[in-house]
Amino acid sequence: MKKIILDRLLARARDVRERAYAPYSNYRVGAAVLTPLGKIYTGCNVENASYGLTVCAERNAIFKAISEGEREFVAVAVVTANGGSPCGACRQVLYEFMDPAAPVVLSDDDLSQVQSMTVGELLPNGFTPRKLREGQGSVRKRETGKRVVSGKR
Ligand SMILES: [Zn+2]
Q1: Distance between Cα 87 and ligand 1 center (Å)
Q2: N or C: which terminus of the chain carries fewer CB neighbours within 10 A?
Q3: pLDDT tens digits, residue range 39-76?
Q4: What is the end-to-end Cα distance of the chain in Å, rounded?
């Protein structure tokens, strides 16, 4: 991926970070995802007094894009005060919509410490829609060891 595109993605992540609603953690995060056609969607973290309702910047960006009709992303940039990396939940969500080889760029606020990796490096051996499909439709009964097909009760 061209550096100029990744730089633009980083700049958008840095800019949207300013809009973070993070009165509890004081840890502001901005994220930007790139579609195959070059469109950029951004997201910031949005916290809540009921902490568990907080949504991370990465998921916010992805969900915004999905709700606009996107289904695939080719790169993601995340900017925090100190270049922190995505949480486990966000890694799994990125994995759902991105190729494991897609670039992930992390940076601090002044874009001086930029780190590059891939989605696969961020989440090795991630759970995929394919794995889910492969595992559906049958369960092994512990008691009998017999295989039963769900839906045929
Ligand atoms: Zn997260």
Answers
A1: 4
A2: C
A3: 999 999 999 999 999 999 999 999 999 999 999 999 99
A4: 51
| Token pair belonging to 95 | 């994995």
Q: 86 CA to middle of ligand 1, Å?
A: 5
Question: pLDDT (tens digit, 9 = 90+) per residue, 17-47?
Answer: 999 999 999 999 999 999 999 999 999 999 9
d(CA 42, CA 14): 10
> 96: which residues sit within 8 A by CB, 6+ positions away?
128, 129
Tokens of 106: 């992390």
Report strand pairing: 75-79 vs 103-107: parallel
Catalytic residue set: 58
Question: What number of helices (H) and strands (E) belong to the chain?
Answer: 5, 7
Read off the pTM: 0.88
Q: Provide φ and ψ at 116, rounded to 5°.
A: -115, 140
Report how far Cα 129 is from the mean position of its chain's Cα atoms.
15
**Structural domains in the chain plus CATH codes:** 3-124 (3.40.140.10)
User: What's the 55 CA to ligand 1 centre distance in angstroms?
Assistant: 7
